[in-house]
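Target protein
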Amino acid sequence: MRSSLRNRLLITFLILVVIVGAGTLFAIERTLADDLVSSLDSRLSKQGAAVANWLGMAGHVDRLAPRLAAVTGTRITIVGADGLIQGDSSEHSTVGRPIGDAYEVARARRGEVGRAIRQLKSDEPPQYLVAVPADLGRVIRLAVPLGDVIETRARMRNRLLVGFGFGFLGCLFLSFIFIRAITRPLQSMTITAERLAK
């Protein structure tokens, strides 16, 4: 009976630890992931604004896009007011072609910062896209692959799981000591009651 009580208390305590720990782990992982994406978005927005200011003082947009992309570490696409691509750091052959139906570019044309996640080509990984308005009705779009963000998030999740595992083992050890300390007086009381009954 004493062993059964100790086991029930231990199991109940560990279930509570798993539920609370899993909920906390999920909340922390989501918060850190959101912060990671928010940091990326802030960086791209600032870089897009800087590129827009630079274009206002420079010419030869098609030649400038690859240089600015090398500085920012992104793919830069410059779209004119007529919807035609004026410069692209990755595909020079797209210069002069229409940008097509791009949600983030449409938002930038309205004076806002446009954001989207999608594939620019079928054989490429998904890209995080940020488009900002520029002078002369232009739009500057920066793109980075989401692979780096996904890998960073996976490493972060693995570290959190390892930390949770060590924490769970620590809780298991401490809960055993705690429950043993609680059941010891009950054990003494049970023995005394059995003696009195006899």
The chain has a mean pLDDT of 82. DSSP finds four helices and five strands in the chain.
